[in-house]
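Sequence design from tokenized structure. All designs in this work follow the same two-part layout: the structure record, then the generated sequence. An example of the structure record is given first.
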């Protein structure tokens, strides 16, 4: 584990930006109006990019456990900057190997980058919602999925699928209030995301302070 020297100011700014992200996505989940979400994502992406350039991945040693969650959140939502997401993924991988970030963050961001590139993903975290049905994105080597998930501290694929369908069921109109999401015992990181290029993508984590987010 790296030497801990938490930067309080940096952690506070991460918290502020993550809260702005969550509020915007909660409004979206409740009203269907994206509003200024694209602007918020762009601003957060530019900021977290500068943070990583200066400090490397903002892990627990630098910003604490909560700050590390929030740094991951901002990068996870940087879908309009795929090249940056891919570069950040390598930084996160090094942080996980050093014990400075949880492996579940790496699983989620790995899948996000792969799906964004149009490739099958590894850990089964990404689902697509075309407005009519919820379905998993294509997965590499489905027979080895649960083993890979367990290695990253994730629940089984079956449990995750049940969580996804419960959370994003038609009875919830595809837009649950993230604060009431049963798949996340901790803070929500947001509801559905919609890209101009295609359908909604969803994911949901059910253990270890995970996230239900899109």
């Amino acid at each position: 584990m790296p030497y801990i020297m938490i930067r309080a100011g940096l952690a506070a700014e991460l918290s502020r930006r993550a809260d702005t992200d969550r509020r915007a996505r909660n409004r979206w989940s409740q009203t269907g109006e994206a509003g200024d979400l694209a602007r918020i994502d762009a601003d957060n992406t530019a900021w977290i990019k500068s943070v990583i350039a200066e400090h490397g991945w903002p892990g627990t040693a630098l910003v604490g456990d909560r700050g590390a969650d929030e740094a991951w959140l901002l990068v996870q939502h940087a879908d309009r900057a795929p090249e940056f997401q891919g570069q950040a993924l390598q930084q996160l991988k090094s942080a996980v190997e050093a014990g400075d970030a949880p492996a579940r963050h790496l699983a989620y961001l790995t899948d996000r980058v792969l799906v964004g590139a149009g490739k099958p993903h590894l850990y089964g975290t990404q689902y697509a919602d075309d407005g009519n049905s919820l379905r998993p994105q294509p997965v590499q080597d489905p027979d080895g999925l649960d083993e890979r998930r367990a290695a990253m501290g994730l629940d089984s694929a079956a449990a995750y699928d049940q969580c996804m369908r419960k959370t994003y069921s038609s009875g919830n109109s595809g837009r649950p209030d993230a604060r009431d999401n049963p798949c996340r015992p901790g803070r929500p990181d947001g509801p559905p995301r919609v890209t101009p290029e295609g359908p909604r993508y969803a994911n949901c984590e059910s253990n270890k302070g995970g996230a239900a987010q899109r």
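The two ends are 30 Å apart (CA to CA). We note this feature because it recurs in several other targets discussed in the main text.
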